[in-house]
Each structure stands twice: as structure tokens, then as C-alpha cells.
Amino acid sequence: MKALVVYSTKTKNTLKLAEALYDTLRYDKELKLITDNPDPEDYGFIAAGFWVKDGKPDPATMEFLPKIRDGQEVFLFATHASARDSGPIRNAMKVAKELAKKGRIVGTFGCQGGISPEMMEKIAAKDKKPAWFADAPAAKGHPDEKDVAELVHLINTICI
Ligand SMILES: Cc1cc2nc3c(=O)[nH]c(=O)nc-3n(C[C@H](O)[C@H](O)[C@H](O)COP(=O)(O)O)c2cc1C
To test the ligand 1 pocket, which listed residue (11, 52, 79) has its Cβ within 8 A of the most ligand atoms? Predict the structure, then answer.
């Protein structure tokens, strides 16, 4: 099966997951940035990685996911500052699943991703901080080795 690992990233957290996922896949595979505009039609398996922005998948991913067609296998992965399995993150993944609903979702994975020091400073200076910012200190250093190992294990379980 031909596989595409496509990802969106600003500060490379999601890239880290995308590379680990790509290295793990045993399919005939390609790794592409979402801004390369890959045509999902060419692939039977699509792993799409996004970063969470304002409670949703980032805008480029929101545009990409509806292009997925009937029967294509889809694995969704994400990084975010909020704690794993928190309500807003479950919701962001729900939005992604809904957008990719023409495909067959075979799995999902999400983990925290640290904020750049510049962005931390910028948001800390604001009067009104987003709710997810409270989790930003705990997101520091993620994705870490344990996050990556968990993703690799999951992929090895799904793609046998
Ligand atoms: C403008 C902006 C908005 C963000 N919104 C959220 C959010 O709503 N929820 C959240 O958990 N994290 C949020 N984050 C944190 C990022 O999702 C997180 O740091 C992610 O790992 C970044 O991925 P990247 O390094 O691949 O760009 C936001 C970050 C930025 C810069």
C-alpha cells in the first residue's frame, strides 16, 4: 500500500512525530509538508499530523482533511499544549475526524508540544490568556522520547 505522512508544523513539534511515524511505516511511503499540497488521492494510507490552534486543527490541516476520499485509511496525530485527553483536545480531534470522515479512521494519537520561549513571553504579557496556556509549562520538552515511543508502538499495532 502507498502511504503518505503529511504534517503541519510551526515550531517542529509535529514534525518530530511525523518523522518517527514515517520511519516506522513499512509501506511504500512519502513524507510531505502540508504546504507541499500533496494530492491525497494517490495514497491508500494517510497519516495526517497537525498542531492545535485555538481549539481546532491548524487552518492548513482543516483545508486538507476534507480532500480525503472514500475508503482511504486515515491515522490522525497531533501536538498541543493542553494536557492529553483534556476536553478541548478531545474536541479538536473530534473536529479532525469529522473533516476526514470520508476516509476510514484507523487510529489517533496526541501529545503535548512545548511552546517557544518567545511565544510564552508574548502570551504571558497579555491581559487575557487562553485557557490552554495554563498547561504550557507542563508541555515543555514534549514531544519527548516516551511520547515518540508510544506513537511508534501504536503504529506498529495498527499497520501490521
Ligand atoms: C497561536 C497559537 C495557538 C495555540 N492554540 C492552542 C490551543 O488552542 N490548544 C492547545 O492545546 N495548544 C495550543 N497551542 C500550542 C501548540 O498547539 C503546540 O505548542 C504545538 O505543539 C505546536 O506544534 P508545532 O511545533 O508543530 O508547530 C497554540 C499555539 C499557538 C502559537
Answer: 52
Tell me which amino acid residue 24 is.
Answer: T
Q: Which atom of ligand 1 is nearest to the CA of 89?
A: 11
Q: Which residue has the CA at smallest separation from atom 28 of ligand 1?
A: 53
Yes or no: say if 33 and 65 are a contact pair by the CB < 8 Å rule: no
Coil, strand or helix at 43: coil
**pTM for the predicted model, two decimal places:** 0.97
2-158 CATH fold: Rossmann fold (3.40.50)
pLDDT digits (tens, 9 = 90+) for 100-142: 999 999 999 999 999 999 999 999 999 999 999 999 999 999 9
Neighbour count for residue 72 (Cβ, 10 Å): 19
Distance 108 CA to ligand 1 centre (A): 18
